[in-house]
Each structure stands twice: as C-alpha cells, then as structure tokens.
Write a structure and sequence with these properties.
InterPro entries: DUF8054_C, DUF8054_M, DUF8054_N. Pfam families: DUF8054_C (PF26237), DUF8054_M (PF26238), DUF8054_N (PF26236). The chain is α+β, with helices and mostly antiparallel strands and 298 residues long. The chain folds into two domains: 79 residues, no CATH class; 137 residues, no CATH class. It is 47% helix and 17% strand. The protein contains eleven helices and nine strands. Strands 1-6-5-4 form a four-stranded antiparallel sheet. The chain has a three-stranded antiparallel sheet with strand order 7-8-9. Strands 2-3 form a two-stranded antiparallel sheet. α2 runs antiparallel to α3, α8 packs across α9 and α9 crosses α10. The termini are far apart.
Length: 298
C-alpha cells in the first residue's frame, strides 16, 4: 500500500517538475545568475508588494511578493528585458560594485597611484621603443631573462596542460609573498581565480597570463632593487602593463597576436583588444578600448 501511494505521489509531482523546468532559465540562474539583475528585480518586487499592501491588501501584497521571488529564482529576473535594461541604464560605478565592469587582471587590489606602470618600465629600461619608433617592446636583455624564467617551467600541451595545483600555488606564493598554506588558485574553463583564505585576491585570463606575470616578477626581483619594496597592488599593475608587450606565449612558445572583439555579458557590452596565442589560443590580456576608438573602428 505504501509503495502504491509513493508511486501515485511521484506521478503527481512529475508534472510540477516539468512545469518548473520549463520556466527555469539556466542562462540566468545558478552559476550564471547576475547579482545586479537579481537585486534590481527584488527591489522592484518589494516596491510593488509594498504598494499593494498600502492600498489595503496586505495578504495580496505578500502573496505577490512571494510569487515574484519564485519567478526571480526560476528565471533570474522578474521584469522582461532586465538584462538589456541593466546593460543600458545601470551606471558603470554601480556595475563595478558587483565586478561587472572590465578591470585590470592579476592581483585585484587597487594600486596606490604612486607608481605609473609605463613610466616605471621605461625608466628601468625594461621597455624600449621599436625600431620604427611607433611602439614599445621588451628590451633585449629583459626579453632574454624573461624567456629563460618562463621556459624554466614545464611547457603545456594546451591551455590547461599538466601543471599541478601545487606548482601554481607555489608560484602564487612567490608572486604575492603570502604563505602558500593560505593560498589557492582555481582554474575554471582556462581562467584562474586566486584566493587567500576566503578572499579573492587575483584573476588571470589564462595560465599563460599567470606564467607571464610569474616570470616577469622573478626577473624584476633579481634585477631591480626597488621591486620588492613596491606595494603588491602596484607590482601587479606593472606586471599587467608589461604583459601587453609579450609576443611569445610562456606556455607553448606560440606567437601572441592582437585581436579586437566585443565582450557581451548580461549587464554590459564593450569592445576590447586582446592578446591571444596562435598556438594554444590562450589569452594573455584583454584591454577595453575607449569608446572613441571603438566607434572609429566601426
């Protein structure tokens, strides 16, 4: 008898599960949920429920608020077109609070502003003008030392390769000066996220980008007496600027070329120029183009 009841109950629940699955939008929920969109929609739902309650229907307002929260949980938003609305109307300073605007990659702490990366690199003769005089490149001595530091580690067979997590953490400890026992670096679809305890401290576009920073840090530590006296965030800013001039992938030795593309997210759309390895397809950097430059290129 109990088995029959369980079977009947399961049959009754099945249509409900199907209905829920039809309503669910995985592109806007779960790991893909957008915090700004969710907050905006919960706020709209709360205002609407409060207005309904204020006109003498508190139970209806409560029920409506509950239904709105269920819709947001299932679909990611309540108001149709929310992703486009937030993309168009939310100021970048608001999106920045949720990490929705492009920023520097590497260690994510804010630089002090006392060190200008380009000036530092030029004054240290790390960057020099190209023969044509229209760009900069690694100075020959630095390029040789950087390549030796980068190739001193095992090469990858692909973007992820066979580098162990222990090696990554050891390199991160050297880069940051933080004890390795407190650090972790997780790779998700080729992108690296670094943590000290529960705090996110860094973000790299690829293992190649991470290796480029590690190699440059080793060379600068060995050759520049002032390097280790700089704040970690300032060193990260310098390393990020230096990575713009990497022409050989530190993971597979492939040629790094430039490409322009449009980056789309639920909350923003912007043009970037990216450095990508022709050999393993790893991104070394991604730099947002000013609106004036992007418009002129259209």
């Amino acid at each position: 008898m109990n088995a029959s009841r369980d079977t009947a109950a399961g049959r009754l629940r099945e249509p409900a599960r199907v209905a829920v699955d039809r309503l669910r939008q995985p592109e806007y929920t779960g790991e893909n949920r957008c915090l700004p969109c969710t907050i905006v929609n919960v706020g709209i739902a709360a205002v609407g429920a409060t207005a309904v309650a204020a006109v003498g229907a508190p139970l209806l307002g409560t029920a409506g608020f509950g239904a709105a929260l269920a819709a947001i949980w299932l679909r990611g938003y309540l108001v149709p077109g929310t992703p486009e609305l937030t993309k168009r109307y939310l100021p970048e300073r608001v999106l920045a609070l949720f990490g929705k605007t492009p920023g520097s990659r590497g260690i994510t702490a804010r630089p002090s502003g006392e060190v200008d990366p380009e000036t530092y690199l030029l004054d240290a003769d790390i960057l020099v003008e190209t023969p044509a005089g229209d760009d900069f490149a690694f100075a020959p001595e630095f390029a040789s030392a950087w390549r030796a530091a980068a190739t001193g580690e095992p090469r990858d067979t692909g973007v992820d390769g066979d580098r162990s997590d222990r090696d990554d953490v050891a390199a991160l400890a050297t880069l940051t000066g933080i004890d390795a026992d407190e650090l972790a670096i997780d790779w998700y679809e080729g992108v690296g996220f670094a943590y000290a305890g529960d705090e996110k401290i860094g973000h790299w576009e690829s293992r190649a980008a991470f290796r480029a920073d590690v190699a440059a840090d080793r060379v600068l530590t060995a050759t520049r007496g002032d390097w280790t006296t700089l704040a970690l965030a300032d060193r990260s800013a310098v390393l990020g600027a230096l990575r713009l001039f990497v022409d050989e992938c530190p993971s597979c030795a492939g040629e790094v070329g430039l490409e322009e593309r449009v980056v789309e997210s639920c909350c923003s759309s912007y043009d970037v120029v990216a450095g990508r390895c022709a050999g393993c397809d790893a991104r070394l950097f991604e730099l947002r183009l000013p609106e004036s430059v992007a418009a002129a290129a259209e």
